[in-house]
User: Which sequence fits this backbone?
């Protein structure tokens, strides 16, 4: 692994000193280096000037992310719907399963590369990562709690008063510090070490196969307008022709009440698709083949359909060979380092 180009949470400083008999003793000391921009990524959009990532803040945020007291009956954590082994999604569920096994209406989006996000949620409505956790904590189908109850539960635990003091210099638990701590953890959930990244960074021993390279070429021509490299999303909201769902989810319109925003949903990143099925905002497709066939032949011309899907014909013409090669390329976006990073796991 080329660590110059991989976001690392901790580096190990090696100190060698002599014991009484003159024999060397090697001791490893953890040193936190904070947020590091991957070499092949653009500058982040998150305002780190207002919330610098520190070791203490990150550890507090990680603990809160896996803390069940954030939910009404102390059973649901952020990590319940955002599971690391599934690239921080709820793999296998079409829509999220929350408290008391209540069902939401949308698929759990991944927590990944959020420092480059300008808007959050499938249907928008939040434009600051520091505000995002309010929604799952207070939503009836998710954690069904209110913030003051959460803070009171945390204030009763010396573990958290001590951690807040270490992170922010005070034991006082309030919304600003609580949200910033969670952001510090989520900001470090960076996926940047897939085969694609290694090839683009010209790391020794990594190159695309012929099929992957051909798939990359097709991808850039057919899919790259919305799924822009290297994040594989342009962060926009678009109507991709899924049609009107049984629950009549209007997407971005619910946040803006602007008629032209009806049925527009956030363009997701295509990283780590191996771990995040099912796909789309409502989890309707179980496989990548089904997703690609949707674009090939199943586009529905609903209100505000994206113009890119309605040019000479509805959809994007994809042969069986095209789909095979595109999937071969998409598999180069899977990042095992990310889903196995122990520092992002519950401690």
Assistant:
């Amino acid at each position: 692994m080329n660590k110059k180009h991989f976001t690392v949470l901790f580096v190990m400083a090696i100190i060698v000193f002599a014991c009484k008999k003159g024999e060397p003793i090697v001791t490893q000391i953890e040193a936190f280096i904070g947020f590091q921009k991957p070499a092949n990524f653009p500058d982040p959009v998150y305002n780190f000037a207002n919330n610098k990532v520190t070791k203490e803040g990150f550890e507090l945020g990680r603990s809160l992310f896996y803390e069940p007291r954030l939910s009404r009956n102390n059973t649901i954590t952020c990590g319940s719907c955002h599971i690391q082994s599934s690239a921080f999604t709820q793999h296998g569920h079409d829509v999220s399963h929350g408290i008391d096994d209540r069902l939401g209406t949308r698929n759990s989006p991944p927590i990944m590369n959020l420092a480059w996000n300008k808007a959050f949620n499938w249907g928008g409505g939040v434009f600051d990562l520091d505000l995002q956790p309010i929604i799952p904590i207070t939503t009836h189908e998710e954690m069904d709690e209110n913030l003051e109850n959460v803070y009171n539960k945390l204030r009763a635990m010396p573990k958290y008063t001590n951690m807040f003091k270490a992170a922010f210099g005070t034991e006082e638990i309030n919304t600003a510090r609580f949200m910033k701590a969670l952001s510090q953890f989520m900001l470090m959930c960076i996926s940047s070490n897939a085969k694609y990244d290694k090839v683009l960074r010209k790391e020794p021993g990594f190159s695309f196969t012929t099929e992957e390279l051909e798939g990359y070429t097709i991808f850039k021509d057919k899919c790259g307008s919305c799924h822009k490299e290297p994040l594989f999303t342009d962060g926009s909201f678009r109507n991709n022709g899924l049609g009107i769902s049984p629950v009549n989810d209007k997407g971005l319109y619910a946040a803006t009440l602007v008629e032209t925003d009806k049925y527009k949903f956030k363009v997701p990143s295509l990283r780590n698709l191996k771990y995040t099925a099912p796909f789309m905002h409502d989890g309707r497709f179980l496989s990548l083949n089904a997703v690609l066939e949707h674009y090939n032949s199943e586009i529905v011309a609903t209100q505000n359909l994206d113009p890119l899907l309605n040019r000479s014909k509805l959809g994007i013409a994809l042969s069986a060979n095209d789909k095979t090669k595109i999937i071969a390329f998409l598999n180069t976006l899977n990042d095992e380092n990310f889903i196995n990073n122990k520092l992002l796991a519950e401690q």
